[in-house]
Automatic annotation (TrEMBL):
It comes from the Eukaryota. Gene3D superfamilies: YVTN repeat-like/Quinoprotein amine dehydrogenase. The lineage of its organism: Eukaryota, Metazoa, Ecdysozoa, Nematoda, Enoplea. SUPFAM superfamilies: WD40 repeat-like (SSF50978). Keywords: Repeat, WD repeat. The keyword DNA damage does not apply. The keyword Repeat applies. This is WD repeat-containing protein 55 homolog. It comes from Trichinella pseudospiralis (Parasitic roundworm). Pfam families: WDR55.
Amino acid sequence: MNALQSSVSVDDDMEFKLPNLPVCLDAHPFNYAFAVGCVDGSVRLLHLESDNQNRTISQRWRKRYKAAVRGCKFAVDGNSLYVVSKNLALCQQDLQTGSKMRCIQIAHNHAPYSLYPIDQHLIATGDENGICKIWDWRLDRKPAVAEFRECIDFVSDFVCDVAKTTLLFTSGDATLTAVDLRTMKPICQSEEMHTELLSLVIAMQGYRCLFGMVPYLLIMQNCVSGKRVLCSSGNGYLEVFNWDQWGTIVERVDTGHQDSVEDLCLLDDRLLASASLDGSVRITHLCPNRFITVLAAHDSGVVALASTHDRRILASCGHDHKILFNDFDPEAFKLLKKRDPEQRERRITDKSQLQRKQFFRHMICKED
């Protein structure tokens, strides 16, 4: 696959319009490519390209499944794309052509809900009935090497530690489950939270301010084990767990969202982006926990986030059938101190304020 430019920037309002409702979004691990899956069964590969001052979004290919796409994730090596769809299938697609390389027609007995490539060979999937499966893609026959039935509702999201020894997944039954990947046995399942858990990230791993300096994968391989696990919930709060203490939370973080937080994306070691059905993408600083700004605003609910390999561009997709691309610079989102009231006044605090700023920017014209 041809590599794109090493750096691409976007306009504040750069967007890609979709004809159908998007469900999932993922960013390529090495270049400025994005994959998006929709309810009509379509999967698209998009590229951000920059030529001097001209910035464009191009669609490289579009493929169609027989049922709604539930999840799409790039392979760890970046050479293929994994997709799960409502018709029970788990497939691998070639990035050059979009053609299917391999397809397991019946991966689950119930519709798959989530997908996560653990490494170059292992893949985790979860379905609507709470069953999690781990697949070894090297095996031609019986590639499902483990199955977990701890959850009683849909498996919403996965994440794995740097050492690839612990797999975590959240569920609609409001629990977090930890699995030992060395023994393929469950470690612990948390007590039920206040509401369903929808997404999760591992934060505070010790790589702050390193994004963009060296390849992201090298950072992850050399940083220490995760310290905090943050899970988004249906009531707008983040449930926070200490690493290796999966039984119960240590704190709850208020994101300021007025609806459920559908997705999380870690932008820096302590900077977290959250997407909500209230239509906004908010940036929160962790430890201390403080709201920073509203980065993007959709006309309706936001369902998925994805950031580029260098964490410089954050993409979001929502019920308005749009993918918005926003520049992100960690230095521009430092924690604002109380002794700088003027700077605090300039930050964007809600979705409507951001929309007003975008509206009036388009009305400004240059004199001849």
